[in-house]
Amino acid sequence: MPLFAPLRMPFKRRLQTLAVLTWISAIVVSLTLFFFLCTYKYLWPLVIAYLTWVLMFDKAPERGGRRIQWLRNRRLWRHFAEYYPMTLIKEGDLDPSKNYIFGYHPHGIISMGAFCTFGTEGLNFSKRFPGIKPRLMTLQNNFNIPFYRDYILAHGCASVSRQSCEYSLRSGPGNSIVIVVGGAQESLASKPGTLDLTLKKRLGFIKLALVTGASLVPTLAFGENDLYEIFSNNRTSKTYRFQQLVKKTFGFTLPMFNGRGIFQYEYGLLPRRKPVYIVIGKPIHVEKVEGSPTSEQLHELQKLYIDAVLAIWERYKDKYAAGRTQELRIIE
């Protein structure tokens, strides 16, 4: 592969790169705009009013987001999906009279597949699963970033807190949530050619399913870990310990990674053009329990869920992960 992108490039590919750049740069653009507005004193009353509203009155992150459908439907997100490209594989229908908890695996570096599938209509989720209204749950910290918070709220994102998840699941038929189960810890294992999942320790979404009676839907993204190169860290290294400290303090961390640039292919923050196949499995129906679930109930349902994830891997690994360097592992 040449180092630099050709000068003569189909316009469609330029649009695809622009679409991905729009998402990748959203935080930087939002903060830049906010601080730029702060440089004008006559705008300070508006800035103060906005921050007051955000900090004291706006409950949208805990109330299922503030979805604006035309933003989710923009042609931009079709270009986003075509960049890699991404493909949605549907294993079964979902009853719109029920509620669902989608467990997305793996986290990858930035969970590109999760956003494209559930935060936009880039893969026509609403047409493939009519009546299902997914909300992509993310860290509360993301809703503390001016303007960016409003951007992701408009795409149907909401806080991953327990109260927020329960509110969304109890907001009527079809209302569903998406949790990237492995979280920040799993992102540190996002090595190309591998699929190491942090799942054994994750019982929160299992308990949520039992408490609300929402069905579990395992979702496995083949290729998510191939979008970036990662500089592996030994668990005894100072870098790894620093990343763990950041995660403990702020709730998130990022591995040392490398992608590609806008005009060259070797270095940068853009993901590499690698195919991603998002397999949405058949639902695991859950009976609602009264009171607090027992340890036995939690681990029994967790085993069913893990078995379903492993079954998806076995069905599709030779087709969508032919270049893998190892088999799927559940490491934590």
TrEMBL record:
Pfam families: DAGAT (PF03982)
GO MF annotation terms: diacylglycerol O-acyltransferase activity
EC number: 2.3.1.20
Membrane topology designation: Multi-pass membrane protein
Listed CDD domains: LPLAT_MGAT-like
Keywords in alphabetical order: Acyltransferase, Endoplasmic reticulum, Glycerol metabolism, Lipid biosynthesis, Lipid metabolism, Membrane, Transferase, Transmembrane, Transmembrane helix
Catalytic activity: an acyl-CoA + a 1,2-diacyl-sn-glycerol = a triacyl-sn-glycerol + CoA
Listed transmembrane segments: 18-36, 42-58
UniProt-listed GO biological process terms: glycerol metabolic process; triglyceride biosynthetic process
Matching InterPro entries: DAGAT
One Gene Ontology cellular component: endoplasmic reticulum membrane
Pathway(s) the chain acts in: Glycerolipid metabolism; triacylglycerol biosynthesis; Lipid metabolism
PANTHER family the record matches: ACYLTRANSFERASE, DIACYLGLYCEROL O-ACYLTRANSFERASE
Function: Catalyzes the terminal and only committed step in triacylglycerol synthesis by using diacylglycerol and fatty acyl CoA as substrates.
Protein name: Diacylglycerol O-acyltransferase
Organism: Linnemannia schmuckeri
